[in-house]
UniProtKB/TrEMBL annotation:
InterPro entries reported for this sequence: Trm112 (IPR039127), Trm112-like (IPR005651)
Any one of the GO BP annotations: tRNA methylation
GO molecular function: protein heterodimerization activity
Superkingdom per UniProt: Eukaryota
Species annotation: Clathrus columnatus
Similarity comment text for this entry: Belongs to the TRM112 family.
Protein name: Multifunctional methyltransferase subunit TRM112-like protein
Length: 128
């Protein structure tokens, strides 16, 4: 599961309607995977990025000190240079979570990740 997918996932368990994004990672195993760099794709997705979530998640779980340094404040789209776009590309599209868990910060529901696939299915009693 690439971090771009994490960036659009939220908990939808019954009664969980606030503070359900972002899901929190734990017990993760990840690897770097190559992905074709597409500046146009990134610029199209860029307005959907919750910058603080991206920075916090990347620093807490996936980026080793000094490996990739993204600005603390979200740059304006028109100010993005190719170097910054490549850093964003790496974080969103080349960090691949293989196993682990995501949990809802509101209700605590656990979503397991196995073989790179998050299980977002809910049991019948958990459906809103």
């Amino acid at each position: 599961m690439r971090l771009i997918a994490h960036h659009i996932l939220a908990c939808h368990a019954k009664g969980c309607t606030s503070n359900n994004f972002p899901l929190k990672f734990s017990d993760v195993e990840s690897q770097n995977a190559e992905a074709e760099f597409s500046p146009d794709f990134l610029k199209g997705f860029y307005p959907k990025i919750e910058w603080n979530v991206l920075i916090t998640t990347a620093k807490e779980k996936f980026i080793k000190f000094g490996e990739v340094s993204l600005p603390e404040e979200q740059p304006n789209l028109e100010d993005l240079d190719e170097e910054t776009l490549k850093k964003i590309h790496h974080v969103l599209l080349e960090i691949d979570v293989i196993t682990g868990k995501m949990s809802c910060p509101n209700c605590g529901h656990i979503y397991p990740i196995m073989s790179g696939i998050p299980n977002m299915l809910l049991a019948e009693h958990e459906i809103a």
